Amino acid sequence: MNVPDHDPGDEWVTVRTCVWGHEAEFFRSVLEGSDIEAFIPDEQMGTLRPHLLLGTGGVRLQVRASDADRARDVLDSIEA
User: Fold this and answer.
1) Is 73 exposed, middle or buried (0-12, 13-18, 19+ CB in 10 A)?
2) What residues have CB less than 8 Å from 41, skipping those under 6 apart?
3) Looking at the whole model, is its pTM more than 0.90?
């Protein structure tokens, strides 16, 4: 799993939680197409044991805190 570099001044925050890994992948591609770095910390677990994610809240999609508002706007716009 590729873990992005950690910058202590700009924490990773969850902007969306998905039931399925492919949903999170789609949303990540939308964000990256908008020049927003995105990370799926549950990516491997979702592939290996997807049924376990249902009990833990799902697959998290994260962005840097400084990009969170813009990321939410982008995601909301594609769902509207």
Assistant:
1) exposed
2) 12, 60, 62
3) no
